[in-house]
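thread: overnight batch results

M.L. [08:02]
morning all. the overnight job finished for the chain we discussed friday. pasting input first so we're all looking at the same thing
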Amino acid sequence: MGWLRSGRSRDVVVVRETSPLTTRPTDTATLQEAHRSSVPAPVRAASEWSWRLILIVIGVTLVVAGLVWLKTVVVPVLVATLLASLLAPLTGWLCRRFRFPRVLAVLTTLVGVIAVVGGLVTLAGSSIADGFPALRDQATAGFDDALAWLSSGPLRLDEATLSSWVDQLQEQLSSNSEAIVSGALSLTTSAGHIAAGALIALFCLFFFLLEGRRIWTWVVGLFPRVARARIDGAGLRGWISLGTYARTQILVAFVDGIGIGLFAWLLGVPLPVPLGILVFVGAFIPIIGALVTGSVAVAVALVDGGILTAVLMLAAVLFVQQVEGNLLQPLLMSQALRLHPVAVLLAVATGTLVGGIVGALFAVPLIAVANTAIKYLNGKDPIPDRLKGEFEELTRRWQQT
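M.L. [08:03]
and the structure it wrote out:
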């Protein structure tokens, strides 16, 4: 009891019995923060970007696969869209200049297009029918000359060996006759698909020219209300870009076809008109289209006139390509649509890999439209100032609803 007398006190420790959860609290946020701190920030950012990119790639792949599966319908719609962007100014001009009703202007435009295409096909067909027999005879004579050169030239191949090679070639053709027949049947099926696609494209083209704005307004209305004005603005600018691209490409293709066809005529190469039309069609695939179709003219020149004529024809094709790439494209293509040649080449290669010739045809216009739309959405409006007021007036309706 001495401690009471001395005035000192003893600390009394009160121990409370509590649950383990109270004495050892588990802070979820703290644990997550500790886990995040154990992973370096660059690795964490890379992983977050990786799974997002994987989802984007999967989504794009599914969309592309669906479009390829529905190509019988999708391709005609794309063709109609491209033609509508090209022909819409003509339809508008008929309405303004001659006071045509909208329906009459659209019908006049379609009849004119069909007449032009039919005239080109008829002209090419008649030229081929007139010149192909002579070209076939020249090709046969050239083949005989090649066999004679193999026999009497530096290789000194005997006639028995050459005859055996020719016999083997004929046997291969005979043995593969079933494959040739099946290929002809598949060609008939493809012709049926082409006819159906042509009807779909013509039908869609009529309504795109007649009430394209109304159709696009319905599409924009499917998006959330807050995004409609910006989507409409991006679509309008993409439409202008598509029309500019189509008009530029058709002018470039016309120059390519006329140039190569004219050089073929000057060199005395057979079938200059069909060759020019072939180059005109192929030039719609940028960079490589006119070059590939121009190689057909070089092959015809080789068969008809020999190596010298073929070399001159090749020089003419390369000259026309240089004029296109260094003069026409920079002069006609606006700054908003100007794409780097590497981007164009990669787009054409990717489109060819995914969709063949059709993919190569539509790859660059899709890239051009996407480039313009993305620039607008990022705050860099690429269209001329004279069109901005009109587009703002068209998109103001979404701000009022």
